[in-house]
């Protein structure tokens, strides 16, 4: 009787849960043994992006930041390229514990200060963080 109740409860848990699976192989094996239906996450949307060279006299800086966890070990980096697409400079920095957005923001700040110190004034900054880009666009409209 108790075993039947446990199996019934496990089977019903599928209908209650709303999340998707992100389990280890060991956990997936246990779920399969218990005949629990799995809800895998949807495949990510893949968007093709084409890199464009900057105008003559400009440097393009592509930056990115990432965190392993929320927050977790994080880092950021960037690559400066000239108008012909050739590599000019780059950086990669590890930071201790941070959120992914903090790493993205640190990359922007570092890139701007780095360029300023080297006397590079014409920058085209590119990031994959839509939120960060929208913040930078909005704040640049209010600068006199």
TrEMBL record:
Annotated Pfam families: RVT_3
Annotated ranges, domain RNase H type-1: 55-144
GO molecular function terms noted in the UniProt entry: nucleic acid binding; RNA-DNA hybrid ribonuclease activity
Coiled coil: none
PANTHER family: OS05G0353850 PROTEIN, REVERSE TRANSCRIPTASE-LIKE PROTEIN
UniProt protein name: Ribonuclease H
């Amino acid at each position: 009787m108790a075993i039947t109740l446990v199996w019934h409860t496990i089977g019903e848990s599928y209908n209650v849960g709303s999340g998707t699976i992100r389990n280890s192989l060991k956990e997936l094996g246990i779920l399969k043994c218990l005949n629990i239906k799995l809800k895998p996450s949807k495949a990510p949307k893949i968007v093709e992006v084409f890199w464009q060279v900057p105008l003559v006299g400009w440097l393009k800086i592509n930056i990115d930041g990432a965190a392993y966890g929320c927050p977790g070990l994080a880092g950021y980096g960037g690559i400066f390229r000239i108008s012909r697409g050739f590599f000019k400079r780059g950086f990669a920095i590890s930071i201790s514990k941070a959120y992914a957005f903090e790493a993205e923001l640190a990359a922007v700040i570092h890139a701007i200060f780095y360029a300023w110190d080297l006397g590079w004034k014409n920058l085209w900054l590119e990031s994959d963080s839509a939120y960060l880009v929208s913040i930078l666009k909005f704040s640049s409209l209010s600068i006199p």
